[in-house]
Write a structure and sequence with these properties.
By secondary structure, this protein is mostly helical. It has twelve helices and no strands. It has helices spanning 14-32, 40-52, 54-61, 71-88, 97-116, 124-144, 150-157, 161-171, 205-215, 220-230, 236-243, 247-262. The longest helix is centred in the middle third of the chain and has 21 residues, at 124-144.
Length: 269
């Protein structure tokens, strides 16, 4: 009997996996809202939601590969944003969870780079020399009972004074200045006392980011019409004159844009 070669089953496409994840997420959120927070069953469903949406975190983290930070660390930070998004998500808003969660995940990762990663890269040689300068400074301070001069440190290590100064400058990148520390020499209050008040519009940042994310999914012409209508405050008649089309056509395009925005929750972020 002839042997018939079997065709290996095709792996599910990315679109298929995304659709499955969206469907599972909707089911899990429906179950989560019916459970009492803090109960074992609520924690189980919440953990399942985190696990199901980890690919979203990895997708967001991949945008930061060029930062030379361990990808595991970036994914962990992004997962914190995912958890925050899960805890704040309201399925009744009519927005797909990935669309809602992406700005929060990316924002958490950006905050991590802003607060925890040095913006100035210190060359390896300078870093190693800084360790020696630091050690020599401590030894000379004990020996002389005072802080050593740059010349004394340079003589101790048999290097130039300019190298000592470069090392001392590089060493400052390892220490963050306290917001409460007074400004040296000018008698001014600390940075914390000079920060501005909390912007009352801060709560709307998330919503504006979400709208911006949805807006870019529209064709360029429809984006322009929306901007002219709601950013430049032009009437439909003025827009029709600006674009050289009829006012009726502008009205149809606006209606179509709104319909696309309302249905954008079916499109993965």
């Amino acid at each position: 009997m002839p042997v018939t070669a079997r065709t290996a089953p095709k792996a599910p496409s990315r679109e298929s996996r995304s659709a499955d994840t969206r469907a599972l997420t909707q089911v899990l959120f429906a179950e989560l809202t019916s459970l009492e927070p803090g109960t074992p069953e609520h924690d189980r469903v919440r953990a399942a939601l985190i696990e199901a949406n980890l690919p979203l975190v990895r997708y967001a983290a991949a945008r930061f590969r060029s930062r030379n930070e361990p990808m595991e660390d970036v994914v962990q930070v992004g997962t914190i944003g995912l958890i925050n998004a899960i805890d704040r998500f309201d399925p009744g808003r009519g927005v797909q969870f990935p669309t809602f969660a992406m700005p929060t995940v990316v924002g958490e990762i950006k905050r991590y780079f802003r607060d925890n990663v040095r913006t100035v890269h210190v060359p390896r040689r300078l870093h190693e020399l800084w360790v020696q300068v630091n050690g020599a400074t401590e030894d000379l301070t004990v020996l002389h009972g005072r802080s050593p001069t740059t010349a004394e440190i340079a003589e101790r290590l048999k290097i130039g004074e300019d190298e000592v100064l470069a090392c001392l400058e590089a060493g400052r990148s390892y220490h963050a200045t306290s917001l409460e520390a007074a400004q040296e020499g000018d008698g001014l209050p600390g940075l914390l006392d000079r920060l501005g008040y909390e912007d009352p519009e801060l709560a709307g940042v998330e919503h504006r980011d979400l709208v911006r994310h949805l807006l870019v999914q529209l064709p360029e012409r429809e984006q322009r019409i929306l901007l002219l209508r709601y950013y430049s405050n032009l009437t439909q008649s003025q827009i029709s004159a600006e674009l050289g089309v009829s006012q009726m056509h502008v009205s149809r395009l606006l209606s179509r844009s709104f319909a696309r925005l309302r249905s954008a929750n079916r499109i993965e972020a």
